[in-house]
Amino acid sequence: MIVTDEFYVVQDSVGKGMVQVLVGKATKLDRSIKKGDTVEATLAADGYAVSIKKKKAR
After folding, report:
1. What whole-number distance in Å separates Cα of residue 35 and Cα of residue 23?
2. pLDDT value at position 2?
3. Could you tell me where the beta strands, DSSP code E, fall in 1-58?
4. Bridge partner residues of 11 (DSSP)
5. Would you say 15 and 40 are in contact if contact means Cβ atoms under 8 Å apart?
6. What is the number of structural domains in the chain?
7. Is residue 1 situated within a structural domain?
């Protein structure tokens, strides 16, 4: 299997802009995420996401 890097584009937490989040083979990714979901991304110093998970509704 060949895994290539990809990225997700998400709106920042204050809704003012879009942020490109890099995703690599080490990223823990919630595969149930769909367009329009609210997510929480944890980023490493190199800019890659450590994890991206769907936030639960309050």
Report:
1. 16
2. 45
3. 6-11, 18-23, 28-29, 39-43, 49-54
4. 18
5. no
6. 1
7. no
In sequence order, the 6+-apart residues with CB closer than 8 A to the CB of 38 are: 54, 55, 57
Both structure tokens of 43: 């980023």
Structure tokens given for 23:
């995703």
* 29 found inside a domain: yes
Q: Tokens 């998400």 sit at which residue?
A: 10
Residue 35 domain boundaries: 6-54
Could you report the per-residue pLDDT of 2-33, keeping only the tens digit for each? 445 688 888 888 878 888 889 998 999 998 88
Tokens linked to 38: 């609210």
Higher pLDDT, 20 or 49: 49
Provide the pLDDT for residue 58. Answer: 67
Confidence of residue 52 (pLDDT cuts 50, 70, 90): very high
